[in-house]
Structures are given as C-alpha cells and as structure tokens.
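Human: My hope is that you can spare some time for a protein that puzzles me. I am handing you a single protein, as its sequence and its fold in token form. Could you go through the record with me and say what the backbone is doing? Take your time, and here it is.
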Amino acid sequence: MNRDHLPDSCRLYFLDWVRILAFFLLIVYHVGMYYVTWGWHVKSPFASTAPEPFMMMSSPWRLGLLFFIGGVAASIMLRKSGTANFLKRRSVRLLGPLIFGMFVIVPPQAYFEVVEKLGYDGGYRAFMGLYVQGYKGFCQDGCLKLPTWNHLWFVAYLWIYTMLLGGLVAVSGPRMDRIAAQLGKLLHGWKLIVLPAAVLAVARIALVERFPTNHAVVNDWCNHAMSFLPFLLGALVARVPGFWSRPAQVRWQALAIAATCWTCWVMWAHVTWDNATPAAVAVLRPIMSSVYALMAWSATVAACGFAVRHLDHDSPARRYLNEAIFPVYILHQTLIVVLAHAMKPLRIAAGPEAIMLVVLTASLSFGIFELVRRVRLLRPLFGLAQESVAPAKSAPLPAQ
C-alpha cells in the first residue's frame, strides 16, 4: 500500500501490529530475565550467561520503539481532540492503572524478591503493611524502594512525556507543524537512519556513565534521552505527510545495520578487559555507545518498514489484541514472578520451564483480560474505556 497518498482518516494499522508484537516480546524478554545473570526480582537456579546474547538482541530498541509509537499516537490524537481534552483522557487512562498497579498488581514481585533474596518470612499481609508505609529496611547491594512501580515505569514515563508533548504543542501552536515539515525534509534515505541515531548517540555518550538507568524519573537522564527522544520524534513524523513509505524503502538496510550492531554489542559485552589499558577502554566506550544507539534506532526503522509492507491491514485479531495488550502488559511480569517462584521447587529443566512460563503467562494474562473487559468497575483500572466502542479510524491507539 502506498502511504504517500493516503488520506488523514486512514488508520495506521501497521503501528497497531508493531505495538502488539512489541508487547508480546516483553513477555518473552521478562521470562528470559529469570534465566540470565543480570539482576532481577527472582532468579532461576539454572541462570547463566548463555541466553544473554539473545536478550541483547532486543534490549536496545524494544522500549524505544514503543515510545516512538506512543509519540505518533499522541501527536495524532492531540490534533484530533485538542490539548486539554486529550491530556485529561490520557491522565485517566494512564494514572489509574499506574496507581492500581503499584498497590495491587506489582507488590507480589517485591514480596517474592525479598523472600528469595533476603529470606523474608513475615507473610504477604505483613509485607504489604511495610510496603504501603514505604519501608526502607529490605537491603542487599542497595535497599528496595517501596512502594515501587517496577515494570510499570513505562506507564509513568509515557504519562510524563505525554504531558510534556501537550505543553509543547500548546506553547508552539502552528510552529509544531513547521518544525515537523523541516524535519521531514531531512529524514529521507540514509539520513532517516543516521541522523536520529547520531542524536541518540550523542545523548548516550554524554549521559550513560553519569546517569545509569534507575526508572525513578529523578537522575534517570540517559534513560529519559533514549525514551523521550524517540517519543518526540514519533510525535513530529506523525505530522509529516507520506512519511511512512520511507522506513519501508530502507527496511533491509536498517535490519542489516541493526544485526551488525548487535554482533558488535555482544562482542563488547563478552570481552575480558583484564589486560586492556584505561586509555583503550576510554576510546572504545563512546564508540560502543554509538553502536548501541545506532542499533536502537535502525531496529525501530526496520520494524516500522517491514510492518508498513506486510502488516498494514485490519482484522478481528488486531481489534481484539489492540484492546487486550495493555491489560496483558500490566499483568505479565507479576505472573512471571509468581509462576517462576511457584515452579522452582519442581526443578524443571530451564528450556521446558521457560516455554511453560511463556505459555502460562500469556494464557493467564488473556484469561484475566477476558474477566476485566466484562466488569465495568475493573475496566478503567486496566486502562480500558468504560464501554467498548468501535475504534477510531484516524490513528493507532496510543501505547497506553
């Protein structure tokens, strides 16, 4: 389908599919977190470095892609409904599930974390008493900060960025479209890959060593740069007529660049630096930060490009999954943690156990969604509209 000549009323179905697939990838990724040596809430007795290269295949770009799509959706909906109305609706749809999630959905993750890491035996009810009080005594290589939003940090950051975008649009007025038009003139061909990647690389080089990711909003500047910049870019390109044919034209080149960067990043992560001089490491670090940024953006371009070519269609599955995916996202990590902890005494081999965790997590998530969508009081707590309505045709739904 030629996106250069589509009317504004045509829905961007391919972005819905990208968003759906990216959230499904999160389930697989967070199951993987149970089996790698990186820090996480609970850990498998079979945890090893073996799965880590495959985890690194998506870690640089997965959430940046979702923020990019969120920026596209927010920008289109802002133009359609106006700033004040849009920001009010977004606040209801994002803050309600965030608060509910922090005090109902997320606490089991923290509970099983202190059970496994610290041997806590006070029971869940006693733990929740400490949780809501903001207890600071659960410490091992740093203290657990309670209450927490854990994986729901994405929702918190999306709300913050949406408010910032609304304020920017309100202040800039028509200048926003002029800025988007100027940007659209630049982002053609190889520049579509190189220029945004260069901006991300500069930000990462400047910030990554000073501000490691903490998902706490404050002093999380590198993570903000790698998240807000794609969000803002998505908001701008959403206003560029005919933009979506461009990622399709360079999709194979973007995929090849992303694969090459992944190979370099895995090599960097697994090199032994015992004999390397500090000067050599100092030179290589900014290079690898640039490689990381290039991978993050080129993978985003490739995902959008292939989706434009192969997923730009509607179906009952898209409509169902588009509504389901946000509640599934809210639920999935807690289900993984609870299921992994419960299955640990069975000593199932890592491969079969991982498959079981993915299947059980997806099945239970969708099962709970089927309940939630039918109960009016539960719908807003999981980011669903009070009533099921026919989806608008003008834009993809935001990654709520």
In short: Residues 1-9, 388-400 have pLDDT under 50 and may be disordered.
